[in-house]
Each structure stands twice: as structure tokens, then as C-alpha cells.
Amino acid sequence: MSEVASPPSTAAPDWTRLVADSIKQYGVWHTYLKLIEARTSYPNDLSLRGYTEIVRNTIVRDFLSHPKGLQAVPKLTADFLTNFDRFNLTAQEGYLISLIDGRLDLQKMLVLSPFDQFTTLFNLAKLQHERAITVP
Amino acid sequence: MDAHNFVIAERLTTPIAIVNEHGGIEWSNPAFEGMFGIDAKDWLQQAARVVGGERGWLQDFFMDGVEEHRAVDVEIEGRTFRVEHILNIGGESSRAVALWFEDVTQQRQMEQAKSDFTAQIVHDLRGPLSGIQGTLEFVLSQEGSKLDSMYSDLLQEAQRESERMMGLVNELLDFSKIEAGNLVIEKEPVRVAGVLKRAVRSLQQVASRDEVFLLSAHGRDVPQVIGSVEKMTQAIINLVSNSLKFTPKKGLISVGAQIVRNDDVPESIVITVTDSGMGIKADELEQIWKKYKQSGTKSLRGGSGTGLGLYIVKQIVEAHGGEISVASIEGIGTSMVIKLPVKKASDTGVITASRTLS
After folding, report:
1. Over 80: is that where the pLDDT of A70 sits?
2. Which of these, A23, B4, B90, B110, has the minimum number of CB atoms within 10 Å of its CB?
């Protein structure tokens, strides 16, 4: 759940075009981080929140597009196991990493996770993007 | 008022008056005097008062930030007038407004008759439709029934269509209530997390059938707002149902809530319903809130709606003191964003969504 302060807002840019172009050129993760930055400048822009949610939704949809769907079993990568310190994990990500044992599938992780389903999958997608986990 | 405008106003057949904030008439045209005579000063003074915490309608035009061309329906001597605020006049010591009085008695009577007729028709349709739905549900729920798969598929299709028809009928009923100014919103503490959970649960089966992921994206610690549990649930169900129509197989719909804080105090809740559907064209985004307007995008699940769903959602959100916005990218998805104020639990009672102050 995000919390945002309220500095003064300015005229909103054409988010539809900016976000669509950014996704095409730089991909969803880069676009997501840029939108989070933009929210500091436009805290009262409701549609900006909507565009951020569209990008987050796309990230989770892509993560779920694995052929095995929720039956896919995430595993820790060799990189994570050998360079643990390189990964700057949040508390939520750390908890989810602790559940990964090479047998538990996404469906069971959703049941065991104390976070909502979307947040759980979004964090797992982020871990996959950062190559801390792999979903073979 | 300059000389040209004064001459025009004098000759107009529509009643116009310049009224101060105490209800005193500073000027009126002959049409106003002919229509209302000297009695006008009595009801105008009454309209300027605050009685038992209730502001008279004239007070609405003297509130800070009220723009010109605001209008309110007012009952005067048994007739209905649409009173429009056309001009701010006066300085710091004495404020006045120029008001335009249009007799809309007949128009409102016709609208009321149309609204009553729609409500009656809708009410009459719901009865037999409930019967059809119940019968289909009973037949389909019989375990070990000997229906062959063709008949079973046809009955399921009939069930889906009857659900859709019930949705359309309910939309018409809500619309007729809004149009008649009868959409009553109870002011009770509402657990937003519970509302979202209920909405997701009620459509989970439909989403599974359509092979669409429907996920919650909120924790339990969402603050309460003041309003109607029933109407808010209806608004969220409406948005999720809409998303289901436009999200392809293997797509994702998420229903989330975020808290917006000001100095660490929860100020409002932002609810989002986001899908990975086909999106809405940029030039259609502003049109979707209008009644009978539908996006040019064709539903993936067949059938068309009344074009009232999003209009009704907007009315419900605004009756809760909130605002609604849409974000969409063609081919990627759409997000409906609702912002609701977090209010004190002591702020309870009843709100009536009315179209009088436009």
C-alpha cells in the first residue's frame, strides 16, 4: 500500500502517449520506475495513478503468462545464492524469498503469503526481473 | 450591468432579477415583476436564510468558489423554476447575483412521468426474470442430471444471458432513480476492504469461466469511508464486470486500494480497478462518463450494454463526495481510479444524490 505526501500539483502531461511510448522503447520496469518518480511531482493526478496501475498490472500479467501459470515453481538463482549481498531486498521480498524451497508453486505461495495476491505476484515478478529467482 | 445588457434584460420575456445575499431585490425586469409580483421578496428572503443548519437555495449562489451558470431547481408558488446564476455583481461590502428564472414545471413533470414509467417497467421485468434465473440455476445444479452436454451448454448460455439481462434491468432502475433525484446514499461507516473483497468474490466464478485472473491488490488496513456499502459494492462490481467484457483470456484484472495521507493522517482512499484489456481510444476517454455512451471497442464476450454503467458509477462516486478518473492505453489496458474522502465516523445520516445543482 503506497503513501504519498501532497506537494502542489502542475498541469498534467499526456500520460497515454508518454506511457505507451515508454513501454515500447524501454519496457515495463523502466516505465514503472519513471511513473513512481512522476507521482512526486503530480501527487493529485488521479489518472497518473491509473497509468501506474496499468503498468503494474502488465508486469503481473506477464509474470502469470508462464505456460504453467500458477502451477509454476519459482527457484532461487545461483547468482542470488552466491551474491546475496548484492540484492537490496525489501521486507516483503525477503519474506517471499524465505518461502522459496524449489517445491512450492505460485498457487501455494499465494495461500501462504501474508500479503495480498497482487502484491505477492508483483514482488515475485520484481525478484525475477532482478534475477534473484527464476521460474523455469 | 452595462447599458446594452440593461436594455436587453428589460425587454426579455424571461424573468431576471438582481438579488443580494439577504434576499433583497436590487433590480428586476418587467417579466420578473409580471410573473412574481411583490410576493417575490418574501420567498427570496426565505431562500437567503439558514434555518436549523439548512441553507436556503439562494445561499448556494453566494458560496465562495461558485461559478456562474450554476443552476438549481426551485419550487415557487406551486411551480418549478430552474434558477440560473448568470452574473456576480457588487463589491466587498455588498454582494449580489443576477438570476434567470425559467419555468420548467411541464418539463420536470414529463421527466418524472418518464422516470416513474421506467421504474414501473423495470420492476415488472425483474419478477419474471428472477423466476427464469432461479429455474435455470435449479436445473443446472441437479447433480447426476441426465442432460446431455449440448442441452447443458445451451442452459448455461441461457443462464449467462439472463444474468446479463438482469444487469441491464438493474442499470435502468438505478438510472431512473438518479434521473428522478431519488438515489439515496446512506451515510454509514463503510469498510472499503470488505467492499472490494465482496466485489471480487462475487465475480470470481465469472472470471474463472472466462479464463481471466481476478486478483485483490489491497491489504486489510484500509480506512473506513462514509457512505453506502450496497452502492459502493455495486459501483465496484460494475467496474469489474465492465473490465471482464474487454479482457481477453489469460488477461488480468486487479482491484486495489491505496491510502493517501496528508501529514501522516489518512486523507483519502484511492480505489483502482485495472485490466489488461483492449483499452479505450484517447479521444473517447472523456466520453465514457456520459449516459448512453459506449466506447467504440467491441466487447469480447458478446452483447452490448445500456451505456449507463459508467454514468451510474460516476453518480454513485460523486454522491459519496468522491471523484473518478480513467487511464487507458490502447492494446495494453485500462484503469478506473476512484478517490473517496476518509471521513469521521460521526458524520452519518443520509445523502440524496440530486441533479438540481448542476
Report:
1. yes
2. B4
**DSSP assignment of A103-136:** S--HHHHHHH-SS-HHHHHHHHHHHHHTTSEE--
C-alpha cell belonging to residue B295: 466506447
Q: Are residues A54 and A83 in the same domain?
A: no
Write out the residue range of the structural domain in which residue A116 sits.
Answer: 69-134
With CB atoms and an 8 Å threshold, state whether B332 touches A54. Answer: yes
Strands B213-217, B252-262: pairing kind: parallel
A1 in a structural domain: no
Question: By C-alpha distance, which of A83, A95, A90 is closest to A132?
Answer: A83
Q: Which residues make Cβ contacts (< 8 Å) with residue B345, sequence separation at least 6?
A: B189, B224, B226
- Phi and psi (nearest 5°) for B294? -130, 150
- Give the span between the Cα atoms of B351 and B183, in whole angstroms: 9
Contact: B282, A16; criterion CB under 8 Å: yes
Q: What's the CATH code of the domain at B274?
A: 3.30.565.10
Chain A, chain B: beta-carbon pairs less than 8 Å apart:
120
CA distance A60 to B57: 51
- Say yes or no: B66 and B210 in one domain: no
Q: Looking at CA atoms only, how far is residue A83 from chain B in angstroms? A: 31
Query: Which has the closest alpha carbon to B230: B272, B186, B193?
Result: B186
Q: Are residues B205 and B137 in the same domain?
A: no
| Parent domain of B82 | 3-103
A42 and A79 part of one domain: no
- Residue of chain B whose Cα is closest to the Cα of A119: B217
Taking the C-alpha atoms of residue B199 and residue B240, their distance in angstroms, rounded to an integer, is: 8
ipTM of the shown complex:
0.87
Are residue A101 and residue A129 in the same domain, yes or no?
yes
pTM: predicted TM-score of the whole model, two decimal places: 0.71
pLDDT in tens, B93-145: 678 888 999 999 998 888 888 878 887 888 888 888 899 989 988 888 876 66
User: Quick check: is A30 in a domain?
Assistant: yes
Domain match, A100 and A86 both: yes
Nearest CA-CA partner of B332 in A129, A12, A30, A50: A50
CA distance B259 to A67: 35
| Cα(B55)–Cα(B60) distance, integer angstroms | 8
Is the backbone of residue B303 left (phi > 0), alpha (psi -120 to 50) or beta? left
Q: How far is B352 from chain A (nearest CA, A)?
A: 25
* Model pLDDT for residues A90-130, shown as the tens digit of each residue: 999 999 999 999 899 999 999 999 999 999 999 999 999 99
Say yes or no: B252 contacts chain A, CB-CB below 8 A. yes
- Structural domains counted in chain B: 3
